């Protein structure tokens, strides 16, 4: 009888151990599921082009490190980089470099903004030391998300402000170079606020001038109903 009681106690102990392990595994699975849900929610809140931006940032970091290493060893980084590119890829890059950007002219303001953005991006030369310092200082807020308050996290440097001012001055000089002087008749009434508005008003006058002549005269005399 004692042996039977001992066997039952051992079985009970074994069952309790199994039950305890099951509880531990269940809690562990809950924690993993919670982490997965939080990570998925975080990914949904990121911009749609987040992965492409992250890959580009990682590539810039790797390229900058390789360039510094080549400079320390006294090597020409561009030539060293070409040694690891096959002939087909090198030929494609050479054609791309020689090819000039086509001038599609002005079609709309959106495309003009895109061209301006691409031009500014090509002129960016990132300071990787400042990049790493800001990344370490801000932590997760460095990349930003919908819940991050950016005000006060970043302070513009004088060099960056001067660079922006120089770029704006170049844009103004370029506009003045290509702008045309509009002919102005001093005898005409000024019913516009800028050249674009004046052109629009001339179109209205050309198409609807006769139909609105009486209305305008009444408005000028103050007798319009």
Automatic annotation (TrEMBL):
Lineage: Eukaryota, Metazoa, Ecdysozoa, Arthropoda, Hexapoda
Subcellular location: Nucleus
Region (Disordered): 23-50
Name listed for the protein in its UniProt record: Pre-mRNA-splicing factor SYF2
Keyword match Nucleus: yes
Function per UniProt: Involved in pre-mRNA splicing.
Ranges annotated as biased composition (Basic and acidic residues): 23-44
The entry's keywords: mRNA processing, mRNA splicing, Nucleus, Spliceosome
């Amino acid at each position: 009888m004692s042996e039977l009681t001992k066997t039952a106690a051992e079985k009970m102990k074994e069952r309790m151990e199994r039950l305890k392990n099951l509880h531990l595994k269940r809690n562990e699975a809950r924690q993993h599921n919670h982490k997965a849900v939080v990570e998925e929610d975080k990914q949904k809140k990121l911009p749609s082009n987040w992965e492409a931006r992250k890959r580009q940032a990682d590539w810039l970091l790797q390229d900058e490190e390789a360039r510094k290493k080549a400079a320390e060893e006294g090597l020409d980084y561009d030539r060293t980089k070409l040694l690891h590119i096959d002939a087909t890829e090198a030929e494609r890059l050479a054609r791309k470099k020689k090819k000039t950007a086509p001038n599609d002219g002005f079609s709309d303001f959106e495309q003009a903004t895109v061209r301006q953005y691409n031009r500014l991006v090509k002129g960016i030369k990132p300071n990787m030391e400042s990049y790493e310092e800001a990344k370490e200082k801000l932590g997760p807020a460095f990349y930003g998300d919908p819940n991050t308050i950016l005000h006060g996290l970043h302070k513009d440097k004088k060099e960056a402000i001067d660079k922006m001012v120089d770029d704006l001055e170049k844009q103004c000089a370029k506009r003045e170079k290509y702008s045309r002087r509009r002919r102005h008749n001093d005898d005409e009434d000024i019913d516009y606020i800028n050249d674009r508005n004046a052109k629009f008003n001339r179109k209205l006058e050309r198409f609807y001038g006769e139909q609105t002549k009486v209305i305008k005269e009444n408005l000028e005399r103050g007798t319009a109903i």
